[in-house]
Design a protein that fits this description.
Blueprint (H helix, E strand, L loop, with lengths): L2 H5 L6 E3 L7 H7 L4 H5 L1 E5 L2 E5 L8 E6 L2 H11 L9 E3 L8 E6 L9 H7 L4 H10 L14 H5 L6 E4 L1
Antiparallel strand pairs: 1-2, 2-3, 4-6, 4-7, 5-6
Helix pairs in contact: 5-6
Length: about 160
């Protein structure tokens, strides 16, 4: 092991207040029960804390995705200490171009479900779901689109962590 490798500090995941998450306002504005955002936590890896929203009040599940398996393991351990994140599990991806996922709550939905069904499962308001569907029209190349938040988009500029809550 080289000296440079040995002396480099490894980033540690930590929990912060939910309002510290850079996507807090985005989710609070779209959840059917906005106070769920306040019951969540910001998961901080590197420099960008992202919001993890607990289950409850119609919200049946959530997930966070991570490029590195070690980060998913750290995030799962941290979320296990917070109420509202039941049935925590890691879905390991064997593919290099696919992220590892920490899920909580009910098992995730099949990929073929509609955006409306996904939105309801994740506790979004009817108006947020309708706006998403309206703004993300289906085309042959995007027939199976996913909800997209600032967090999901952030992986394009910061490939280490993204979170879909």
């Amino acid at each position: 092991m080289s000296t440079a490798t040995a002396s480099r500090a490894r980033p540690h995941a930590r929990l912060l207040p939910p309002r510290d998450a850079f996507d807090y306002d985005y989710f609070r504005e779209r959840l059917a029960v906005p106070s769920l955002a306040d019951a969540g936590v910001a998961v901080a890896l590197f420099r960008i804390p992202v919001l993890a929203v607990p289950v409850g009040s119609g919200r049946r599940g959530g997930y966070a995705s991570f490029e590195q398996l070690v980060h998913a393991v750290e995030a799962r351990a941290l979320l296990s200490t917070v109420p509202g994140f039941p049935n925590l599990r890691i879905r390991w991806s064997p593919y290099r171009d696919t992220r590892h996922t920490v899920e909580w709550g009910e098992p995730g939905l099949p990929w073929w479900e509609s955006d409306e069904v996904f939105g309801s499962f994740y506790g979004y308001s009817d108006s947020a779901i309708a706006a998403f569907v309206r703004d993300h029209s289906q085309t042959p190349s995007s027939k199976f689109s996913e909800p997209c938040s600032p967090t999901a988009q952030s992986h394009l500029t910061s490939p280490n962590v993204s979170l879909r809550t």
